[in-house]
Every structure is written in structure tokens, then in C-alpha cells.
Amino acid sequence: MTTAAWGWSDRLVSKFEPMDETHQEFVSLCAALALADDESFLQSLDALIVHTEQHFEQENLWMREHSFPPLGCHQKEHDAVLELMQEVRRSVAAGDTELGARLAEELPHWFEHHVDSMDNMLARFMLNLSDEVAPSLTQSA
Ligand SMILES: [Fe+2]
Ligand SMILES: [Fe+2]
Q: Family per UniProt (predicted)?
């Protein structure tokens, strides 16, 4: 798989709509990063970092609000990836464009694994919560 050919696909669908919308944006921004040239790379990376901060904070908030059991592990992975992106940003700004290209190449692999191992579990948990809330809404209507 080359990063440039990477895009949204059924394997990334979690069925939890707010998460899927955010993940589609992440995939688009990663694809834009892979296509960026030296001139536009930092701008694309900044856009991806801004998105990722909000993306991860939303998931962290869902986990905290609903006492999701694997919160610590999931949040730790978010923190590590965000820190890596920021480190690479500093290196690219200092002239290490090769490291930027490696990040663009590796992020899709990381993301697919993260969705499979962590986000899908959170999505199922959130969908179960809405199933539990739905009957009480029906009764009070
Ligand atoms: Fe996510
Ligand atoms: Fe996540």
C-alpha cells in the first residue's frame, strides 16, 4: 500500500457516526500530507495536528464521561502519537524532510491498527450506551 493510494474504506467503518465522520477527516488530511511537497508539507502537517488534537480529545472525553474501562491504554496511545507528530514537525521545520515523509508513510498503518484495536472497541461501547438510553426515551415519549 502506498500512502498516496490510501483512502476511506469499509474496513475503517465503526458504525458510530460521530467517530466515522472524524475518521474520514483524518484519512483525508493524511492523504493530503502524503501528497504535499516540501513547500506545503508543514502547512499540511499543521492541519493534521490541529485535527488530531480535537479528534483525540473528543474520544478521550467520551471515555472519561462514561468511565470506559480501557481509558488509560487508549489515551496513552493518543498522547504518544500526538507527541510524535509534534516532534516530527520540529524536525521538518529544522530541515529533516525525510522524517516527514516517513511519518506520512507510517500514519495510515498506525491508524488502521488503532481503529482495529482501540477505536472499534470504544465505538461498540458508545453504541451500546445509546441502545440502553433509547428504550427509556421511547417510554417517556
Ligand atoms: Fe479515532
Ligand atoms: Fe482513538
A: Belongs to the hemerythrin family.
